[in-house]
Design brief:
With 231 residues, this protein is an alpha+beta fold. The protein is built from seven helices and eleven strands. The chain has helices at residues 42-51, 64-70, 91-94, 114-121, 136-139, 184-198, 213-221; strands at residues 11-18, 21-28, 35-40, 59-61, 83-88, 104-109, 142-147, 152-162, 167-175, 203-209, 224-230.
Amino acid sequence: ADLQPDYAPYCRWHVAESAQGMGLALLFTRLTPPALFAMGDSDTVAQAMAQAALPETVYMTLQEAHWSLASRYYACPADPRPMWRMALAEPAAVAADVSVSDGLHLAPLAGGDSGRIRRLVANGGPYAPDAFEPYQTEGGVFYGAVNRSGDLLAVGGTHVVDWQGGVGAIGNMYTHPARRGEGLGGAVLRAVVGKLVAGGVTNIVLNVDQRNVAAGRLYERHGCAIDCPYL
């Protein structure tokens, strides 16, 4: 998805190749701080990282095997967040039900709703989204659970969507602490998946903190399976 015109200007790609295979280091600069991602053989990833003009601070999303490589350049935290990368097996089945409880409705959100999303997420908690930027609402998919007064009670959306390639990464899922356990997160998730499926997106993934048991169970109930762990 990062190869698409909306995202490519904010990407710095570094690739290396050896007898062991390929290594990739990607720096995505449209987040604050920039995000560092890597994949491939560790020794070759090390060569790719050595090519990069790395900034002073980064947000790392790395497999455990690559964590030690980043520690050559950064003071890495001793307790990184253990994450699961999950993939949705049958997106069309998830998209079938978008109902919510009485007094609430699901509303599509756009760029003008960025302030509302930020205010909701500001209620905080250990697993509150930490990589939301207003631009994500422009070409992506966002839905909110809204009450009769127009208050935003839950939100979910995408980090990135490649409509051409049929790839979407779901994120920014958050429910107001006082409204958890009412099924709002599931309803928002189904609405986002439904919009992606309607647009031809069939390869849908998401990330979740391994310690966030409730969210992990929610995603598993909706057909997500673990693809790999990372930090």
